[in-house]
Queue: 2 jobs
Job 1
Amino acid sequence: MTAYLPQYATAAIPRYTSYPPATRFHSGVGESEYRAWLGAIGPKDTLSLYVHIPFCQTLCWYCGCHTSVPNSNDRVLDYVESLKQEIARAGARVSRSAKVLQLHFGGGTPNFLPPKILAAIIETLMEQFNFDHGAEISIEADPRSLSKEHISVLAGYARVRVSLGVQDVSPDVQKLINRIQPFDLVQGVVEQLRAAGVDGINMDLMYGLPGQSVAHVRKSASMCAALEPDRFAVFGYAHVPWFKKHQRTIDEARLPGGQERLDQAEAARATLIDFGYAPIGIDHFAKPGDSLFKAHDEDRLRRNFQGYTVDPASALIGFGASSIGSFQAGYIQNEPHLGRYRDAVKSGGLPVVRGVVLSPSERRTRAVIERLMCNYEVDLRQIDDALNCEVGMYPAAISKLKPLCEDGIVEVDLPIVRATPRGRPYIRNIAACFDEHHGKSEQRFSRVV
Ligand code: SF4
């Protein structure tokens, strides 16, 4: 059994899908920085594109995404028009020679959009950017509304990956999270995708949901693994009702406690390993032979806002309300509010509202934390060599790591810092020791376990 260490498990720490985390973004960084970063993308640079579709048919009560249920079709069409304008405006600033390696649709529910509209957005992107012939198009999809027409549009592109949101297969848990999704439906979608030639299939599962037990998690993992997707992501439910008001609908008394959450995570992990999946980073699993598995094996794994990725692109450009772009120099975020996003696009500008410029020390920390989150260990000298800097072996971080060493969750053998097997569930606590901003403000994050 994995050791439940409350002093670490209950700590509120960022998920480190970026460093600094989005809570550090501020309005002092905006359109002029963004224009400069887009313009600095060189012909040899590679790109990743992200498109946010902030609509869903119904709201799942556990949802932590930026989404809503639109009250009219016009609202959706209006959004798509703004999106196309934004794509054209940003695309005009980027070198036509820079190759796009990855396009990802997230949300919300990207397949909330009718298939033709989805295809029109992809065409707009392909007109404005230079897609590599091997570029992958990935999309987060709700199996409940993924139609045959959606599948046929997606199957028309060369490399497609569909991530199906499943979470839990049991009706009793589904009722408590307002997401009724019979398992037969998921199975049918997988069969349709494969019949259409879409072989890149991921599934998302969750633990820590209300009413969930180890048995529920084991059942979900084994039924889904029997469908043989390439990859799984297994996320712990983050209960943040102060931030996501609809989570107040969730009965806190039905939420599993800390040890139970850890046992559920361990049950998912053990079940997927039994089915032949290899654990990748903190919450992903892949079949041996899958590109994510190979990237992990060859130390090429990356972590971004979508989680773990093989995408080596030097810049990520985000489109749509709330989307985040990532550049060597820093991060930039679009206006999250749909009305204000539309108005900002209409006014002729790029709809960005906040961001952060990375200091040299934050760039080092970004690299250190990314390696820790991907590999559970980091070679600090390798990071300094890669960034061409030599300013000492992180004395403040090493001193913060001392109590974690004493508790047996990390080993420091400079220049290597490595989580022990017992410390792996607490990798965010280890990463936080390198985070110069952590604990300096009142910002609230989800708990580690
Ligand atoms: S379908 Fe996904 S994005 Fe939409 S409410 Fe449910 S969890 Fe959130």
Job 2
Amino acid sequence: MDQITCEYIDRLVNIEMRFGQGLPRGVTHRLYDAARAAQGDVPLTFLAADGLRKALKRGDHVLVVTGAGTPPWLPKGETDGPPGAAAIARALEVGLGAKPVYVAEERNMGPVIASSEGIGLAVMAESDFAKRDGVAAASVFPLGKDAGAKEAARLFDRFAPKAVVFVEKAGPNSAGIFHSILGTGRTDDMMANAQEIAREAKARGVFSVGIGDGGNEIGFGKVAEAVRGIQPAGRVCKCPCGQGVATIVETDVLLSAAVSNWGAYGIAAALAALERRPEVLHSTADEDRMILACAAAGAFDGAYARQVPMVDGTSQAVQTSLITMLHEVVGNSLKSYQRGF
Ligand SMILES: [Zn+2]
């Protein structure tokens, strides 16, 4: 029964609404199909939610890693990423009693904290966070590969996380170069090298989930060859590395979605269904507060490249409509009703 619910959660979060021209179009269902085929043909939100439930006990730390976009184009990052991170952090806290730690570049942390506060999960200093439940902490991740490797090890030593979730977090390709979805290259000194967190998780046997919408985000290493065939810049990028945008960084579970935030909302909905508690998924009022707070804190819509409360070119109304529909899928799945004939 849970897998039926999650089947339609998967479909809801994979409805593509891209511009007719500009960014890659018609790729969402192909990336989803590739990710699904590579993971035993089971609904992907089910795989992620089920894995997180098994990995996390009350009081366990979970790293929630996000932050996309680079200055000067997207100076404080995108509206896709921070709200998804906040939604999954809230769901893991409300649903499982986990203690979320946000991890992002300093430039992106404002919108991450604003999103969390918008959805009703306060972010506290590490010392206070350790003393109580019902809150999150935030840890700035440095730019550059060496600093990233050092910080990844410190995070695992400090928090001993039992799970890691990456939301819209760029990963390098086979040449070690990060790329925008259209193939612009970005060297590792411009980026949080969060692949070091994925590497550390794998080395320490910590469960990991990657959520993305393009194939250049951490998690898509599981289907890198499919990404190379699906994305226009999949095989050949616009930078001297010439090896395309597909990342080679893998996670235990990959969730491909139309918008990364929606993938995170989908996992929150799946957790709500599995826990039989609809409130594990945030409300439409939470969503409205969160997206406004995220944009006000400096995040840009990545498709318009403007500081507006929209996500990948979709309106605020679409975000709340999606939450409405996810709640209906979950709520109805928990009902029993005989119509009498
Ligand atoms: Zn390149």
